[in-house]
């Protein structure tokens, strides 16, 4: 028996006991029974929904989604870092040909900028 079946069985037992107690106390047993039945149906549906939460495959799916989001965040942070101004100046090759740099430096030194 799975934990989901145990939950459903326990909800059904509580609903039956609660129904019997209310019918004994009610002036209109049919109305009390309908009210209790509606409450029990709501509880049963809540229990059925909670069984899905206990399903290990759904937990695994949520964990996988969380890992994918984290990977996407990390990749998203890499992209701006790679294109930042600091990254461009880290390597002299990123500025262009070394001969061009030397020529510019020579013009600056002679004042012919």
UniProtKB/TrEMBL annotation:
Where is composition skewed (Basic and acidic residues) in this entry? 66-80
Q: Which parts of the sequence are annotated with region: Disordered?
A: 66-96
- The entry's protein name is PspA/IM30 family protein
Q: Which organism is it from?
A: Actinacidiphila cocklensis
